[in-house]
Amino acid sequence: MKNSLSRLIVLIPCCIGVAHGARAQDESQTLSSETYELGVGYVSDDAYRFGRYNGLQDEGPYALGEITARGYRDDGAYWRARGTNLGLDSRYLRLDGGWQGRQEYFIEYDELPNNDSDSARTPFQDVGNANLTLPAGFDIDQNLDTALHSFEIETNRKRLGLGASFITRSPWTLDVSYHRDSREGTGRIGGASGGGGDPGAGLLVNTTATLLPAPVNYETNRVDVTLHYARDQAQLDLAYHMSLFQNDDRALSWQNPFSPANTSSQALAPDNELHRLTLTGGYLLPYRSRVTGVLSVGRMTQNETFEPYAFVPGPGGADLPRDSLDAEVWLTTAQLKLLSRPQRKLRLDAALRYDERNSDTPVDTYEFVGRGPIGTQAIENNPLSYKRYRADLGANYRIRSDMSLRGGYKYDRMSRDYQDEERERTEENTLFAKWKLQPHATVDLALYAEGGRRDGSNYRAPEGENPALRKYYLADRDRTRVGTSLDYLPSDTLSIMADAAYTKDDYRNSDIGLTEATQPSYTLEVSYRPRQDTTTYASFTREDIRSRQAGSEAGTTFPDWKADFEDTVNTYGAGAKITGIRAKWDIGADLVYTDSTGDIDMKNLLPGGGVTPYPDLKTDLTSVKLWTLYHYRKDLALRLTYWYEKYSANNWALDDLQPNSVPGLLLFGEDTQDYDVHAVSASAVFQF
Which residue in 448, 565, 552 sits closest to 510, CA to CA? Predict the structure, then answer.
């Protein structure tokens, strides 16, 4: 609270000073508006998830601060100021200024909290550091409970940006901007440690795993420079983009909880760079046609020093084949689009796109030590390169004034180039059509359908993988999608919109893996405005996500189990707004209720085999927002807001799961983030 108030005290006077200072420079200046909102709110309970992105996670008071202001002078000079949530950790502030048509400048700052969990527990000390140690005398079988302590999994992103635009009387314009993003906090990462073996023979077995609190200390610097050219018939943009990512923590080390005398380490997100040049252009052609094109070339690099082998495998030991990955990837994109209306009733469009990822990353052999049978494996890194070709053709024909038909064809081909590729080439062909009808001036009806098939070269399962397994994004697939939409305006005050869609994916040649997926969805929205000062709405959306998987526990080419997954999400919404009550009051309300259920139905296909059913996953969210605005006088209004939110979840993957519930695995023992919170606020709105 003190931190938010101190920042608010600094930000508000600065913005007000900028605004009024600009106005004082020239009495001929015309201000379109200045609005400043100051107030205080109160949260009824601590609720970490409630404040995940808004900063309202702590019980107690908080400050409100909003700014919307702008002004202009007769010579074209202007300024704008906009700020939201200035008293919270989700604050945003932007200042613009300059001379219209000549020079424009901006500076902006915003923060975004991401509160993930406040119920995590770990025995590691110095959470947030890159070197995790256990308390003296730690024994996971004897004193784990006494060594556990709580910590928060959260990050806070801060972004500072500034830029300028220089406009001349010639066709050229230059835009320059710089953004720096910093992210700090604590995240999750899994780590594996060796728990025994024969060091003399270079063998390691009994691997254990631990969830670790990982430090997050990231910084990303981005620079964008764009040169624009515009004439009546031609437009051209040349843009340069640079992104530099830096992680202050190169690696994370930790004592093995299952063998505290041993220390393990692993690399964290590596520093990397991206540089990209993009040329974009457009030109007007005869016959009411326009062609646009994009050509982009980028280079990504990553050369972070490798962590040494935590355990030297192989008889006599082995060294890493190189000091760093020395990764280099070239990205190329080329696109050409044509839009044409050769006849009044006919509209044509076509697009060709080419994407290439060319990885020049060296391929080397690395020693890998795993759980499984005693021994080591030599594996090569597989840098991914691909070429992707896409074509879209479409036509829209207006049959008559109340009817039109659109149809087209899509082609998508991808060729992959990496070691031990499962599938070198995939191709997908899709046909689509949409029929629109307006049987009455108040009714718009649409029916649409789409069908596609993906296949390709022979599938080759990698060594050690079930030969019948097909990865869903590489597998043969038939996709069907149908839907309908209706817009109905029975009167000037009432509108009704309905939509229904059904998508089915059939992985026709997959015996093991994802074999089928369907996704029906339905939406209904109603808006009613009985009077000029009153607006109401109601909505309902239902989405069912269903899929079927097959697997083989024995590793055979035919399934010995199947699983049906069904996720159902229902969302209900309603709201109303009334303005000008007795020429003084505005009131509003927004209500949202969402419930979701995840069901897993397992089937053992072996004779006499049984399964233990999984409990359902359930989530419910209720949100109610009420507000009123009282116009005390022309330049002053008073706002009162009430916000109630309740969230509950049943998640068998978290509930009642203790840190040591799984042998050989140390977890955080987190709980689902249920909450029941009330938040009220009162503020004054000043207008000049």
Answer: 552
Phi, psi of 16 (to 5 degrees): -65, -40
pTM here is 0.88
Q: Which of 19-33, 52-66, 170-184, 202-216 is predicted least confidently? A: 19-33
Helices vs. strands in the chain: H and E counts, helices first: 2, 35
Among candidate residues 632, 615, 612, the one with its CA nearest the CA of residue 683: 632
Helix (H), strand (E) at residue 71: strand 60-72
Separation CA 43–CA 60 (nearest Å): 5
Based on its alpha-carbon atoms, the radius of gyration of the chain, rounded to whole angstroms, reads 30
Confidence of residue 19 (pLDDT cuts 50, 70, 90): very low
Q: Are 577 and 587 in contact (CB under 8 A)?
A: yes
Strands in 401-442 per DSSP E: 403-417, 425-440
What mean pLDDT comes out for the span 341-354? Answer: 96
Strand 512-531 to 365-369 pairing:
unpaired
Q: What average pLDDT does this structure show over 543-561?
A: 93
Burial class (CB in 10 A: 0-12, 13-18, 19+), 87: buried
Q: What is the DSSP letter of 333?
A: E
Start-to-end C-alpha separation, the chain:
29
Determine the 3-state secondary structure of 230 from DSSP.
strand
More confident site: 682 or 608: 682
Nearest Cα to 153, choosing from 181, 175, 122, 185? 185
Three-state SS at 3 = helix
Residues in the chain: 688
pLDDT tens for each residue of 322-334: 999 999 999 999 9
Cα 494 to Cα 27, 129, 510, 565, 592: the distances in Å are 47, 59, 49, 39, 21
Please state, in angstroms and rounded to a whole number, the distance separating the CA atoms of residues 341 and 242.
38
Range with the poorest average pLDDT among 146-160, 324-338, 478-492, 595-609 = 595-609
* pLDDT mean across residues, the chain: 90
Contact 273, 250 (CB under 8 A): no
Amino acid at the residue 410: K
Q: What tens digit of pLDDT does each residue of 406-444 get?
A: 999 999 999 988 655 688 999 999 999 999 999 999 999
Q: Is 656 helix (H, G, I), strand (E, B) or coil?
A: coil
Residue 539: Cβ within 10 Å count: 16
Do residues 650 and 7 touch, judged by C-beta distance below 8 A? no
Widest Cα–Cα separation across the chain: 90
Residue 8 has pLDDT above 80, yes or no: no
Instruction: Using the predicted structure, report yes or no on whether residue 132 has a pLDDT greater than 50.
Output: yes
CA distance 658 to 135: 20
Structure tokens at 506: 């059939």
CB atoms within 10 A of CB 213: 23
Q: Distance between CA 157 and CA 181 in Å, rounded?
A: 7
All residues at 6 or more sequence positions from 373 whose CB lies less than 8 Å from its CB, including other chains: none
Structure tokens at 314: 């192989």
**Which helix or strand (DSSP H or E) is residue 146 part of?**
helix 144-147
CA-wise closest residue to 526 among 472, 478, 575:
575
Q: What percent of the chain has pLDDT over 70?
A: 90
Residue 393 C-beta-side C-alpha neighbours within 13 Å: 5
Least confident among 88-97, 295-304, 658-667: 658-667
**Letter string b/e over residues 630-645, b meaning 16 or more CB atoms within 10 A of that residue's CB:** ebeeeeebebebebbb
